[in-house]
């Protein structure tokens, strides 16, 4: 879980597993994420459903909570179990199935969109596309002469909330510690200079994705809040009713024993009646029992025995 909080104070970050420490050097934050991952999963590409909670306080970010889920692995490597694909899918479904969450379906531009696992899983839990936003990455790595214009214009596989293209830092940029501001400037330049994307450059890029996420999340919360409130109120009423029963509870009260005995006798009567009627939860389907057996005895066996006498 990664939570961004807008703040007027200097930038710093906090981890839930070491809450007393404030990180001001974000290289240390990266190192701590790697160290905690190794502590939880081992050093040989193991996985774990236990989240690493990181909260970032900064005047340069919007209020958002992001859950970074693992990509779907088809073939196990290292210490990963043989059913790694199903374990990761179950883990992802736990989060994206919640009606209160927005789904960011991330797909590389150099991959066929129809084969996107992210879009496929998003469609399973959100068939109407009410809470799915498509994100297309690696636009700068597409084959020469090709582009993702039809996808970004929402023509190829339309999504209700559309697609947003982003250009992230390459591994070389990350290793060379390329500044985020420089990376954002390079991304902006890419969209403005590309003939297929320049007409929609204002609707592309990481800053626009942040704004859209913040706006969509605000709208989504506004829409889901009434149903959430009514659900909580009904749960509260149910709990209050249950509490009322135990408000004057005295375990040493002798009348409780009488009441308990009466309840047991009444329950026995109800169970007995159900068995006679054949409507209980333990009905034998192989031979007659209860009322059916009594009926047979009186209508078949009893007249026969009378005739014999």
Question: Can you describe what's shown?
Answer:
This protein is α/β, with parallel strands linked by helices and 309 residues long. The protein is 47% helix and 12% strand. The protein folds into 3 domains: 1-68, no CATH class; 103-247, P-loop containing nucleotide triphosphate hydrolases (Rossmann fold, 3-Layer(aba) Sandwich); 254-308, no CATH class. It is built from 9 helices and 8 strands. The protein has a 5-stranded mixed sheet with strand order 3-2-4-1-5. Strands 6-7-8 form a 3-stranded parallel sheet, sandwiched between helices. The mean pLDDT is 86. Keywords: Endocytosis, GTP-binding, Hydrolase, Microtubule, Motor protein, Nucleotide-binding. Residues 1-226 form the Dynamin-type G domain.
Summarize, please.
This protein is of the alpha/beta class and 309 residues long.
Briefly, what CATH class of the largest domain? Alpha Beta
Annotation, overall tally of beta strands:
8
Rounded mean pLDDT is: 86
Tell me the overall shape.
Answer: elongated
Could you outline the blueprint of secondary structure elements for this entry?
Layout: E1 2-6, E2 12-15, E3 18-23, H1 26-41, E4 54-58, E5 64-66, H2 84-96, E6 103-108, H3 117-125, E7 132-137, H4 149-152, E8 163-165, H5 171-175, H6 180-193, H7 206-246, H8 254-277, H9 290-308
Parallel strand pairs: 1-4, 6-7, 7-8
Antiparallel strand pairs: 1-5, 2-3, 2-4
């Amino acid at each position: 879980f990664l939570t961004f909080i807008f703040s007027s104070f200097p930038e710093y970050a906090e981890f839930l597993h070491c809450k007393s420490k404030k990180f001001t050097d974000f290289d240390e934050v990266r190192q701590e994420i790697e160290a905690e991952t190794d502590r939880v999963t081992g050093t040989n590409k193991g996985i774990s459903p236990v989240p690493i909670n990181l909260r970032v306080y900064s005047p340069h970010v919007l209020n958002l909570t992001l859950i970074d889920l693992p990509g779907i692995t088809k073939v196990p490597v290292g210490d990963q179990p043989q059913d790694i694909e199903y374990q990761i899918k179950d883990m992802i479904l736990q989060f994206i199935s919640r009606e209160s969450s927005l789904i960011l379906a991330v797909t590389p531009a150099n991959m066929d969109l129809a084969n996107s696992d992210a879009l496929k899983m998003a469609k399973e839990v959100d068939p109407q596309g009410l809470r799915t936003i498509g994100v297309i990455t690696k636009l700068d790595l597409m084959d020469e002469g090709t582009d993702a214009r039809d996808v970004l214009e929402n023509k190829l596989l339309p999504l209700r909330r559309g697609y947003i293209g982003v250009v992230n830092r390459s591994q070389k940029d990350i290793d060379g510690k390329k500044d985020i501001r420089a990376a954002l400037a390079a991304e902006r330049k890419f969209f403005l200079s590309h003939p297929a994307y320049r007409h929609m450059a204002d609707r592309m890029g990481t800053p626009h994705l942040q704004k859209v996420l913040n706006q969509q999340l605000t709208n989504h919360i506004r829409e889901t809040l009434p149903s959430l409130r009514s659900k909580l109120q009904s749960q509260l009423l149910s709990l209050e009713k249950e509490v009322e029963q135990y408000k004057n509870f005295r375990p040493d009260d002798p009348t409780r024993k009488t009441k308990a005995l009466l309840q047991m006798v009444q329950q026995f009567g109800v169970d007995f009646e159900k068995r006679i009627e054949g409507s209980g939860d333990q009905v034998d389907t192989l031979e007659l029992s209860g009322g059916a057996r009594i009926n047979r005895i009186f209508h078949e066996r009893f007249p026969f025995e009378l005739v014999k006498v």
